[in-house]
Amino acid sequence: MKAVLLYITFMSLCSVVAAQASLAPAPKVVRYDLYVGDTMVNYSGKTKHALAINGTIPGPTLHFTEGDTAEIYVHNTLKEETSIHWHGLLLPNQYDGVSYLTTSPVKAGQTHLYKFPLIQHGTYWYHSHTMFQEQSGMYGAIVIHKRTETNAKEYTLLLSDWTDMHPHTVNRYLHNANDWFAIKKGSVQSYSEAIQHKHFSTKVTNEWKRMNAMDVSDVYYERFLTNGKAVAEQPQFKAGDKVRLRVINGSSSTYFWLHYAGGKITVVANDGADVEPVEVDRLLVGVSETYDVMVTIPDNMQYEFMATAEDRTGSTSLWLGQGMKMPAKPLPRLKYFEGMKMMNGMMKMNGDLDTSDGMQMTNQQMDMNTVMYPEITGDDTPAPMQHDMHGMQMDSTAGDLVTLNYGMLKAPEKTTLPEGPVKLLHFELTGNMNRYVWSINNKTVSETDKILIKKGEIVRIVLYNNTMMRHPMHLHGHFFRVLNGQGEYSPLKTVLDIMPMETDTIEFAATESGDWFFHCHILYHMMSGMGRVFSYENSPPNPEVPDPAMAYRMLKKDDRMLHTMARVGLESTGSDGEIMVANTRYRLSTEWRLGLNDRHGYESESHFGRYFGKMQWLFPYVGWDIRYRKMDEPEKNLFGQKNTKDFRQVFHVGLEYTLPMLIVADASVDTDGRLRFQLMRDDVPVTKRLRFSFMVNTDKEYMAGFRYIVTKNFAFSTHYDSDMGLGAGITLSY
User: Which fold has domain 28-147?
Assistant: First the structure.
């Protein structure tokens, strides 16, 4: 009897499956036309140039069903080339959308067809992969539904960051160590603030180890957006509704904390791949990651689903339901000096992170930034982590808040890879904030060759983050397994957010052909060189890339980009200033001083050189020096060497080296045999806006002065110069 019942049950299930299959829509070709063009956006009364797709920021959400074929026409109405990358999608290499590497750029006025089958389901997105266009508005969501999916309640929210500054200027400011973003964010961490917070010794130790102030996010953003708006509302949901929120972090460099006023958040998918449901109070979504989460509307009210920037300078919200507003609790300001103290304990004098205690950190399971979270540590209570990295008490339930980490993610089905030879790679994520250079194994994309892999291999990558920044590492065209302790059920992802001092391991089966990009998805890190290219051996020619060697040279141009800086002082005693052109490794700079009379004279000194070392503290150079000053008697330097010329024009060679306290030591010799040794430092942060500079050398020249920064381009200034005396005026910056 039991066997008969089981047979009947089995037949019933087969009937249900057959019925569902018959009701499922047949696969079809789904066409979209995307028009890339210029637009003007208006935020808070400020009209700014932006890029848009089909006239909107973000572009339209593209809906498909698994098994469909996407047919997407990209029409470029810009006066410059563009591209579209289909982030997270498994597709033929020629349609991946990385200009020159996999797909021809869409030239101005041209139309490009992307046509590929959709062999997956989930939440993904698309964005430009050309220069900084993504930051200017070129992105949109992709939703691929399961073929037998029921009509569940859901909503797609695409998070992004917006700057009123041109992205090229943002990149230039980052490379020139301009601290305007810190001023705007209130995160300068000056000496006066250190004294106020009783962290003077912390600040001194920080600079003794040649580090800049603690930073959480590189860029200051005027606003954060949900589907292009600061606040979005979805009033159609009612009490008891369970809503699937498809969350996409489409920002250029902002991580977002997600929390919900209506209760717990249940994570059901990550980067488009399903996971076993896990319930948390909050989660941090990395740049370019996607999460599908379930939330419940508890009552007939409006509940806030809040996304807060990691540096907590702003937030954006989605309101679900209608009725009385139930706001989420805002996240308090970070305790930066606690973070600085933690960083001091982690950093060696050579710039490496200190792992001597043998602690193994992996898969986000220990958040070192907990020391900066007042909602966990309290405003006045000691931080839950000792700063010598011993006795750490960091976990995902700190402060009774359950925070998602990768160790909690488990695939619903086995994800084990097929048998094959293992190609093991070790990637150390490297870089420094002083010159804003980001690399892997201390080499940028332009300084490396492609990494050759073979079909049938298992590519296993061990990543160690030896920087003080998080890095969301994205692999194009593949899902990889995150080896997080879940064994055969390790989750599948396309983006790995790796925290400072973490060692994470990922692996993927080499099943494709062509070239595939692997890079940090913080836009400005990628453009600075943090990436690699995986290249399948013996791949057939890519019709989109007729000249692969030339194409790779074009890709390498990104991190070789030149950036410029200028500072001009106009004061009562004359003018002084500097102009600089530099890239990742090289710098050409000219300084000048121009007096009001022949006793003050004029001088100009130029240097061209190359930075060496992972932290780039060493800078050998060649240069030239032109000086004129009316002299009544010869000058002697501290070495007893005389200068008897009113006019001097010499070449010189020298060496700059950054000492503790960020003081630059400069030793040089010129073609007249004169030696000079100099110590100097610019921009000592006295207060949030007041900067102190000084210089002293063996030519018996010295200078000390102050600048009070008013705007990003304007400051009041005063300084005393041994040749020109005391002056005051303004300083203009570019």
Answer: Immunoglobulin-like (2.60.40)
Q: What percent of the chain has pLDDT over 70?
A: 94
Q: From the centroid of its chain, how far is CA 386?
A: 28
Q: Are 95 and 84 in contact (CB under 8 A)?
A: no
Q: What is the DSSP string of 583-597?
A: -SSEEEEEEEEEESS
For the chain, give the percent of residues with pLDDT over 90.
82
Q: Determine the Cα–Cα distance for residues 24 and 583; give it in Å rounded to an integer.
A: 55
Q: Which pLDDT score, from 0 to 100, does residue 358 have?
A: 66
Model confidence over 433-474: pLDDT tens digits? 889 999 999 999 999 999 999 999 999 999 999 999 999 999
Task: Round to whole Å and give the CA distance between 482 and 479.
Answer: 10
Radius of gyration of the chain measured on its C-alpha atoms:
29
Residue boundaries of the structural domains of the chain: 28-147, 422-540, 563-733
CA proximity to 591, closest of 572, 576, 569:
576
Q: How far is CA 620 from CA 195, 311, 436, 604, 696, in A?
A: 37, 37, 19, 19, 20
Structure tokens at 581: 């052109």
Helix or strand run (H / E) with residue 506: strand 503-509
Residue 126 in 3-state DSSP? Answer: strand
Mind listing the pLDDT tens digit for each residue in 126-177? 999 999 999 999 999 999 999 987 888 999 999 999 999 999 999 999 999 8
Q: Which one-letter DSSP state was computed for residue 347?
A: B
Among residues 250, 243, 225, which one has the least CA distance to residue 88?
250
CA angle 617–623–628, rounded 5-degree value? 125
Confidence (pLDDT) at 19: 36
CATH code reported for the domain at 422-540: 2.60.40.420
Q: What is the pLDDT of residue 23?
A: 55
Residues in contact with 491: Cβ distance below 8 Å, sequence separation at least 6, in sequence order: 270, 273, 275, 406, 409, 410, 411, 415, 481, 482, 484
CATH fold label, 563-733 = Porin (2.40.160)
Q: Do domains 28-147 and 422-540 have the same CATH topology?
A: yes
Task: Determine the 3-state secondary structure of 345 from DSSP.
Answer: helix
Q: Residues 601, 594: contact at Cβ < 8 Å?
A: no
Neighbours of 691 (CB within 10 A): 21
To the question of pTM greater than 0.90 for the whole model, the response is yes
Q: Which two tokens stand for residue 727?
A: 């002056």
Distances (CA, A) of 573 to 352, 568, 602: 44, 13, 12
